[in-house]
């Protein structure tokens, strides 16, 4: 196929949006197909403008998923942006982290999910065996590090109570964060 003159190529390009394919110049006869392999939940975080993040929301500070406990916004000075000062607690280890970000800039916000599982067993090596909603078992979760929750979990299981644990997951980490008794066994 002969290359088109430039003026003709431009008019052909506008008509090409209505047709399925257009070859300009001497391209190969191969067609290229691109497929997206990403799922809706593929990303561990999503961007959100710093000025829209509120107390009790989530934010990523120093690569850790955190729950915001305090937000203060400073007004713009003679130069620059208004700035947001975030004080947040790591949702997995409880450490306090702080960050200051211009309010018009984007921050990473973690996808945080909570899932309930029924407790089946507590192994001697510190892992729990959980029953998922579809009937499979989940055996890759450690006991919680929170002493009060750990005691409650072990005592309730020893007494033969029917326990449901809430597992919080964000950025590839999971941890038991709550416990409820759903009646006697």
TrEMBL record:
- Residues annotated as transmembrane: none
Q: Name one Pfam family in it.
A: eIF-5a
Molecular function GO labels: ribosome binding; RNA binding; translation elongation factor activity; translation initiation factor activity
Output the InterPro entries linked to this UniProt entry: IF5A-like, IF5A-like_N, IF5A_C, NA-bd_OB-fold, Rib_uL2_dom2, Trans_elong_IF5A_hypusine_site, Translation_prot_SH3-like_sf
Q: What is this protein called?
A: Translation initiation factor 5A C-terminal domain-containing protein
Which regions are flagged for Basic and acidic residues bias? 29-38
Which keywords has UniProt assigned to this entry?
A: Hypusine, Initiation factor, Protein biosynthesis
Q: Which organism is it from?
A: Ensete ventricosum (Abyssinian banana)
Q: Where is this region: Disordered?
A: 19-46
Per the similarity annotation, which family is this? Belongs to the eIF-5A family.
Where in the numbering of this chain does the Translation initiation factor 5A C-terminal domain appear? 111-180
The family database entries (CDD domains) matched by this protein are listed as: S1_eIF5A (cd04468)
UniProt xrefs under Gene3D superfamilies: 2.30.30.30, Nucleic acid-binding proteins (2.40.50.140)
Q: Name one GO biological process term.
A: positive regulation of translational termination
């Amino acid at each position: 196929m002969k290359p088109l003159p430039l003026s003709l190529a431009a008019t052909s390009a506008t008509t090409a949006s209505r047709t399925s394919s257009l070859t300009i110049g001497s391209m190969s006869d191969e067609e290229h197909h691109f497929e997206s392999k990403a799922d809706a939940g593929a990303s561990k975080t999503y961007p959100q403008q710093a000025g829209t993040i509120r107390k009790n929301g989530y934010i990523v500070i120093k690569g850790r998923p955190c729950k915001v406990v305090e937000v203060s916004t400073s007004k713009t000075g003679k130069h620059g942006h208004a700035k947001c000062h975030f004080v947040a607690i790591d949702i997995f280890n409880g450490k306090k982290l702080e960050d200051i970000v211009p309010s018009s800039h984007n921050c990473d916000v973690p996808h945080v999910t909570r899932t309930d599982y029924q407790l089946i067993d507590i192994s001697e090596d510190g892992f729990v065996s959980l029953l998922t909603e579809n009937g499979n078992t989940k055996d890759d979760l450690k006991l919680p590090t929170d002493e009060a929750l750990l005691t409650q979990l072990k005592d309730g299981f020893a007494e033969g109570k029917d326990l449901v644990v809430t597992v919080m997951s964000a950025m590839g980490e999971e941890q038991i964060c709550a416990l409820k008794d759903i009646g006697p066994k």
